[in-house]
């Protein structure tokens, strides 16, 4: 599904290299967790995969089903089946949620050579997904994320994710700042979407989220590369012992 080879990237207008020859494979249907200390490059990895222009890839590739997404525009990546939920979801004043969701769905459909989704079908689809996620009609009528609590923004991201039905979903510290109820909403949303055809990359600093989203594999990121991989027990080990030990051994 996703094969990252020797990914090396830096901040676009600086010399600061952040990803240092990162190798990572995420199998089809797999839920892979990436854990790592603050500043290890977790968010940078998700931004680079999303195609944010303030990062520059200097080496390597990221193959999604064999195609290098690093050569695609961000909207092409989305159409190819990539979805990213960010640590800090953006607010879009003046753009209604329904307008935003419709544009997202139709942009994806257009790139896939499909017709626009008819409005009644779209409304039905959104309402069905929103209901499952406990998103009120009032929330659907507001501007994207404007005035939403942290928990509401996350619910909203899960709504976007479930509507777009990606092949690969990347969640970057989607647990930060969430209370336990909101955390469960995110986890339930992800768990409901688990399927043999879909992979998840769950990026988190803390083990807590992984109590609710059971990963198949855990990778540890440090100084811009994966330094260790293991089963779910690796997350518990990190929680108990901290990162210093493992990072020190790899250095
Ligand atoms: P993590 O998500 O693991 O905490 P980040 O990817 O946010 O790590 O950051 C990795 C390193 O790159 C840190 O040292 C951070 O300060 C630096 N960094 C990330 N983005 C930028 C940026 N836009 N400008 C300058 N430094 C950055
Ligand atoms: Mg950080
Ligand atoms: Mg981060």
Automatic annotation (TrEMBL):
<dbReference type="InterPro" id="IPR027417">
    <property type="entry name" value="P-loop_NTPase"/>
</dbReference>
<dbReference type="GO" id="GO:0016887">
    <property type="term" value="F:ATP hydrolysis activity"/>
</dbReference>
<keyword id="KW-0067">ATP-binding</keyword>
<comment type="similarity">
    <text>Belongs to the ABC transporter superfamily. Ycf16 family.</text>
</comment>
<dbReference type="Pfam" id="PF00005">
    <property type="entry name" value="ABC_tran"/>
</dbReference>
<protein>
    <submittedName>
        <fullName>Fe-S cluster assembly ATPase SufC</fullName>
    </submittedName>
</protein>
<feature type="domain" description="ABC transporter">
    <location>
        <begin position="2"/>
        <end position="248"/>
    </location>
</feature>
<dbReference type="InterPro" id="IPR003593">
    <property type="entry name" value="AAA+_ATPase"/>
</dbReference>
<dbReference type="InterPro" id="IPR017871">
    <property type="entry name" value="ABC_transporter-like_CS"/>
</dbReference>
<dbReference type="GO" id="GO:0005524">
    <property type="term" value="F:ATP binding"/>
</dbReference>
<dbReference type="InterPro" id="IPR010230">
    <property type="entry name" value="FeS-cluster_ATPase_SufC"/>
</dbReference>
<dbReference type="InterPro" id="IPR003439">
    <property type="entry name" value="ABC_transporter-like_ATP-bd"/>
</dbReference>
<keyword id="KW-0547">Nucleotide-binding</keyword>
